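can u do me a favor
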């Protein structure tokens, strides 16, 4: 966590993510963020699953975190507005 906290530049964060994670892991995190934005916008599970190909289990997990988690998704969503 401290490593990320030391970085302000999105290019540097991207480089760290590429070193730490596989392409698939980065893609899965991006998908989860997309799901969080869609859930926050009121999209249904079925619509999200159809548009993104993400499993219902992943959508439910993101929903649980969005509603009862540590506010990580909420901070990103609110920061984008």
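np, heres the sequence
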């Amino acid at each position: 966590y401290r490593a990320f906290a030391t970085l302000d530049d999105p290019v540097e964060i991207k480089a760290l993510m590429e070193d730490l994670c596989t392409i698939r892991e980065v893609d899965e995190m991006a998908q989860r963020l997309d799901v969080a934005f869609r859930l926050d916008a009121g999209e249904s599970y079925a619509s999200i699953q159809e548009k993104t190909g993400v499993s219902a289990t992943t959508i439910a997990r993101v929903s649980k975190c969005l509603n009862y988690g540590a506010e990580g998704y909420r901070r990103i969503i609110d920061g984008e507005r």
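The chain has a mean pLDDT of 95. hope that helps!!
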